């Protein structure tokens, strides 16, 4: 929801980033304020996931220019874990599997780390078990996912739900959902987006990276951005997504050369 | 002749000193076994890194120190050993610096398990000589093994477990071997015999009360009868200043099953040789190991699985985790003898290097002399996965906590295979603590 007087959570200016010497992000500008939902769309390979991972602090990406302020603080002064504790959360497009690390142990460690960061009480294993089961109900997840390794052998959709479970536990200030909708069946999409809507409030903000309007039917964006060639080339309201759905990307961000009329 | 050999020979003499103090046995064969061992111990030389089997394990720090046989063991109270006791293990034998401690032990005869014998070897040998003679000293050969010879030269107290035919013992037996004194060399001995169709779980548990410098030179012999099963858990948590040499030899009867999980956490220098002979058709073994070391520790595991007969199965997973400037060694030999058709063997060596100064040497060795066999083996040495670390950190875990969790998970795969819940739990805590301690 757009409010004139809400606080700026994220301010990205002229962000450039490279991977293995190849520049992928070529000057991204974006301002996100509290209470807002931003959708980022764009063709495959345009740099959406790169942008998300740069914000989360993945070491494979070198920042080569520009700045990012998160609640007024230089984000690049923070290690990945400090960003997470400050309230940045990235739901990965491709969550990895960590065999052997029990999901419940991992979730509890992550939860307790954030709790103590926020000056709140940590939960012991039994208390956490009750707490996490409640959150899982919200996402209609089977509790036996707690006993498995982190994402170990999870189906694509199950991994995405596990990401959302982490988001629900960590209650981030800024959540970046990178194609969380892809791989979800129709019911799961409704359940997951419903969960996201419950977590959204006037103090936090969400960036949704998606290819499809169907997710935006459930989570209504305040802004829709189009990324192309490592930059945001167009910004509009929610109707832009509908436009893209019917017209594709070809017309966006391409400078139209109006033929000189004599 | 080089200086080191001269030194090491006089050194061995000093180690052998005190052997004549042992009381002679009324059993002639037993006295003969010991005398042979003394003879060999006097002739064999301390291995050096020039010996292929000892390439990576330099024993010279051992020679620089003098060790005496334990003359007397301190009288420990039940409270001193309480922290080592396991809820599931009602039957327990306790040895302190190699000496049997009846007041701390709960042998099987007191539990009235008819037929099951779990007791001190030296007190039971005369009454059970007929059952013991075919096994004792028969598997752990000492003709070319100095440490086995030394151990056998000192043969006296020891853990004797004999499971009668067809008995399935559902409580695990805990053999607790405690080191307490500095500059002492002890020679713990175990003999585990499972008669046909019987089953038992035995924990061989080496611990220390302090961080003294001592030598533990252990020998274990295991005979698994036809259709019998022994689960053998061996935990070595000696003082990180100590030397630990262990030899274990296993023989399997027809369709016998041997399951082994060995965990090495302690000792400055440790060496464990586990030799399993699949000596009858249909025998199976599953041999898993974990070495988790740090600082300047060295842990060397040599295993050999001998497919001597057809239709046998072996499985092995060995893991090493080396931090600090520690050095882990694994040498796993699989031998398939001529005629051992239809052998099914899989071996895997997985290793985790946590520090650039640490080192891991792994050498799977396959020697196949039969043609109809299925043998798979593989070895990897790696570091913690950077994508996994990033994933954990992106959820707020510190770098240290993330490394700790991944290291723990790597080791837990082996510990999870231990069939004693409270020991598993305790070791998992230990591993978590140890990996915490080892952060850069
Ligand atoms: N390690 C790498 N080495 C070289 N190129 C890379 C590397 N990682 C990413 N890229 C390239 O960067 C570009 C942007 O990738 P990115 O994953 O950000 O795209 P995306 O917009 O998320 O695409 P999609 O919609 O398919 O998820 C791609 O062309 C990709 O091939
Ligand atoms: Mg992407």
From TrEMBL, chain A:
Keyword flag Repeat: no
Record-annotated ABC transporter domain positions: 10-254
Keyword terms: ATP-binding, Cell membrane, Membrane, Nucleotide-binding
SMART domains on file: AAA
GO MF annotation, one: ATP binding
InterPro entries named among the record's database cross-references: AAA+_ATPase, ABC_transporter-like_ATP-bd, ABC_transporter-like_CS, FeS-cluster_ATPase_SufC, P-loop_NTPase
Pfam families attached to this UniProt entry: ABC_tran (PF00005)
PROSITE patterns assigned: ABC_TRANSPORTER_1 (PS00211), ABC_TRANSPORTER_2 (PS50893)
Keyword hit for DNA damage: no
Alphabetized NCBIfam families for the sequence: sufC
Similarity comment text for this entry: Belongs to the ABC transporter superfamily. Ycf16 family.
Name the UniProt record assigns to this protein: Iron-regulated ABC transporter ATPase subunit SufC
Record lineage: Bacteria, Pseudomonadati, Pseudomonadota, Betaproteobacteria, Nitrosomonadales
From TrEMBL, chain B:
Pfam families on file: SUFBD_core, SufBD_N
InterPro entries associated with the record: Fe-S_cluster_assembly_SufBD (IPR055346), SUF_FeS_clus_asmbl_SufBD_core (IPR000825), SUF_FeS_clus_asmbl_SufBD_sf (IPR037284), SUF_FeS_clus_asmbl_SufD (IPR011542), SufBD_N (IPR045595)
Domain of life: Bacteria
GO biological process: iron-sulfur cluster assembly
SUF system FeS cluster assembly SufBD core domain ranges (all copies): 180-410
Domain SUF system FeS cluster assembly SufBD N-terminal: 27-175
Similarity comment: Belongs to the iron-sulfur cluster assembly SufBD family.
PANTHER family according to UniProt: PROTEIN ABCI7, CHLOROPLASTIC
Protein name, as recorded: Iron-regulated ABC transporter permease protein SufD
Record organism: Nitrosospira multiformis
């Amino acid at each position: 929801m757009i409010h004139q007087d809400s606080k700026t959570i994220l301010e990205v200016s002229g962000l450039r980033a490279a991977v293995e010497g190849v520049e992928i992000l070529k000057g991204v500008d974006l301002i996100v304020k509290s209470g807002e939902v931003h959708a980022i769309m764009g063709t495959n390979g345009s740099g959406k996931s790169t942008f998300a991972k740069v914000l989360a602090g993945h070491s494979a990406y070198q920042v080569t220019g520009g700045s990012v302020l998160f609640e007024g603080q230089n984000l690049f002064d923070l290690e990945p874990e400090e960003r997470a504790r400050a309230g940045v959360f990235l739901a990965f497009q491709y969550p990895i599997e960590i065999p052997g690390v029990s999901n419940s142990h991992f979730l509890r460690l992550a939860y307790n780390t954030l709790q103590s960061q926020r000056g709140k009480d940590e939960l012991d294993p039994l208390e956490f078990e009750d707490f996490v089961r409640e959150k899982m109900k919200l996402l209609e997840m089977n509790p036996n996912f707690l006993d498995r390794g982190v994402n170990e052998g999870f189906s694509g959709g199950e991994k995405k739900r596990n990401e959302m479970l982490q988001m629900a536990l960590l209650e981030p200030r800024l959540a970046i959902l990178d194609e969380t909708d892809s791989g979800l069946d129709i019911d799961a999409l409704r359940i997951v987006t419903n969960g996201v809507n419950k977590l959204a409030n006037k103090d936090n903000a969400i960036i949704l990276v998606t290819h499809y309007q169907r997710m935006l039917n459930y989570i209504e964006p305040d802004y829709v951005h189009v990324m192309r060639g490592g930059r945001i080339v167009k910004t509009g309201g929610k109707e832009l997504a509908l436009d893209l759905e019917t017209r594709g990307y070809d017309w966006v961000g391409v400078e139209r050369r109006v033929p000189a009329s004599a | 002749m080089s200086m080191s050999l001269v030194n090491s020979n006089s050194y061995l003499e000093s180690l052998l000193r005190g052997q004549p103090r042992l009381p002679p046995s009324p059993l002639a064969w037993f006295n003969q076994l010991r005398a042979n061992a003394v003879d060999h111990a006097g002739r064999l030389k301390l291995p050096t890194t020039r010996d292929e089997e000892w390439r990576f394990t330099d024993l010279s720090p051992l020679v620089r120190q003098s060790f005496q046989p334990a003359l007397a063991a301190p009288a420990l109270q039940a409270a001193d050993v309480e922290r080592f006791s396991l809820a599931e293990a009602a039957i327990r034998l306790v040895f302190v610096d190699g000496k049997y401690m009846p007041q701390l032990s709960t042998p099987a005869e007191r539990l009235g398990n008819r037929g099951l014998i779990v007791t001190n070897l030296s007190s039971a040998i005369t009454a059970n000589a007929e059952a013991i003679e075919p096994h004792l000293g028969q598997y752990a050969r000492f003709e070319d093994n100095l440490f086995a010879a030394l151990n056998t030269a000192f043969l006296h107290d020891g853990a004797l477990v004999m499971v009668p035919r067809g008995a399935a013992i559902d409580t695990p037996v805990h053999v607790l071997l405690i080191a307490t004194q500095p500059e002492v060399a002890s020679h713990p001995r175990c003999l585990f015999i499972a008669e046909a169709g019987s089953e038992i779980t035995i924990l061989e548990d080496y611990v220390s009360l302090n961080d003294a410098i001592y030598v533990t030179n252990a020998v274990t012999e295991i005979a698994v009868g036809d259709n019998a099963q022994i689960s053998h858990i061996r935990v070595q948590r000696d003082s990180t200043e100590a030397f630990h040499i262990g030899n274990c030899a296993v023989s399997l009867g027809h369709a016998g099953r041997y399951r082994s999980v060995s965990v090495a956490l302690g000792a400055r220098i440790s060496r464990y040789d586990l030799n399993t002979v699949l000596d009858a058709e249909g025998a199976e073994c599953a041999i898993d190991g974990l070495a988790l070391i740090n600082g300047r520790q060295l842990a060397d595991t040599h295993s050999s699985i001998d497919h001597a007969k057809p239709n046998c199965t072996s499985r092995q997973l060995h893991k090493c985790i080396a931090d600090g400037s520690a050095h882990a060694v694994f040498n796993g030999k699989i031998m398939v003898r001529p005629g051992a058709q239809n052998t099914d063997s899989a071996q895997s060596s997985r290793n985790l290097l946590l520090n650039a100064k640490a080192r891991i040497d792994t050498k799977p060795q396959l020697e196949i002399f039969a043609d109809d066999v299925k043998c798979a083996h593989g070895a990897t040495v790696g570091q913690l996965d950077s994508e996994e670390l990033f994933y954990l950190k992106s959820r707020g875990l510190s770098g240290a906590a993330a490394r700790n969790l991944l290291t723990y998970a790597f080791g837990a795969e082996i510990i999870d295979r231990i069939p004693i819940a409270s020991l598993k739990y305790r070791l998992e805590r230990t591993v978590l603590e140890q990996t915490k301690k080892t952060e850069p």
